[in-house]
Design brief:
about 300 residues; alpha/beta; Rossmann fold; 2 domains; five-stranded parallel β-sheet; binds phosphoric acid mono(formamide)ester; binds norvaline
């Protein structure tokens, strides 16, 4: 039987994603649920980029499920080129039970999954960040109920990994996803076409006010993702009109919530009054990384 990888939201059925999210809510309500489900199991976490939330929540989550996590960096394990990926996958599969991988090139992730005989989880690539979006969905549902029929707005980089995973989520949850991004930084026509074909409702504009108008949920992320540091100055100029501030939030519904995956750069993509204000649910979404990840690991290991 092939391993149960968790690589991207759109590769799963809506039922599967909703099941994982519902188990996430369950383990949040009852922290001792599945307390020993992964006893004796080991998770290898491989990071080729920095992390606070993903690293800590996977480690703590694995411990709460009775298992153990080990932290590796790409350079320590000599993950130098894509030719070393299959061998790393084969060797790790003999030692551990589950791998979480944060890497630059999405092809490294799929290559690892292809050659591993144990489940592989996407801990972020340049292209996508599915675990983050599971946590965001949980936070939205806790505060406002079902996403069905709601309007979610994104403003900033339309090719950001979190934005792309939200596009994938729109294929499973019947919400309208309005994305405001400058030309050249909008989602590709291929991904929008694929999303529409799979039932998503997505609108792309270069006007943040029109994307946010009457939205139930406003999202953004850093304008300079990990690996894009050399372009910081130009990207900050290009994205300045896309900042989430009080004036932009005023375009959304009065009870709209704000989320950001973190780390956030106050005064750039979001102002302090918004991220630290009453509409922000970023800390609940950050906490939910722990619960969502526990659900993902339980699913990968065939417990749920
Ligand atoms: N949101 C998120 O993935 O944070 P880290 O980069 O700190 O893991
Ligand atoms: N888009 C950001 C997300 C960080 C969690 C990055 O890739 O750096």
């Amino acid at each position: 039987m092939s391993p149960r990888h968790f690589l991207d939201l759109h590769e799963h059925s809506a039922e599967e994603i909703k099941h994982i999210v519902s188990v996430g809510h369950g383990v949040k309500k009852n922290r001792s649920l599945h307390a020993n489900a992964l006893a004796g199991k080991t998770l290898a976490m491989i990071f080729e980029k920095p992390s606070l939330r993903t690293r800590v929540s996977f480690d703590v989550g694995m411990n709460q499920l009775g298992g153990h996590a080990i932290m590796l960096t790409g350079s320590e394990i000599q993950l130098k080129s894509d030719t070393s990926i299959p061998d790393a996958a084969r060797a790790l599969s003999r030692y551990v039970n589950l791998i979480m991988f944060r890497t630059h090139d999405h092809g490294y992730l799929t290559g690892l999954a292809e050659h591993a005989t144990i489940p592989v989880i996407n801990g972020l690539t340049n292209d996508t960040h599915p675990c983050q979006v599971l946590a965001d969905i949980m936070a939205y549902e806790e505060h406002r109920g079902s996403l069905t029929g709601k309007t979610v707005a994104w403003t900033g980089d339309g090719r950001d990994n979190v934005c792309t995973s939200w596009i994938h989520a729109a294929m499973h949850y019947q919400f309208k996803f309005k994305i405001a991004a400058p030309k050249g930084h909008q989602p590709t026509t291929e991904i929008i076409a694929m999303a529409h074909e799979k039932g998503a409702f997505i609108e792309v504009t270069d006007d943040p006010a029109s994307a946010v108008k009457d939205a139930d949920c406003v999202l953004t992320d850093t304008w300079v993702s990990m690996g894009q540091e050399a372009e910081s100055i130009t990207r900050r100029e290009i994205f300045t009109p896309y900042q989430v501030n009080a004036a932009l939030m005023a375009q959304a519904k009065k009870d709209a919530v704000f989320m950001h995956c973190l780390p956030a750069y106050r005064g750039l993509e979001v102002t302090s009054d918004v991220i630290d204000g009453p509409q922000s649910i970023v800390w609940d979404a950050a906490e939910n990384r722990l619960h969502a990840q526990k659900a993902v690991m339980l699913w990968c290991m065939g417990v749920i």
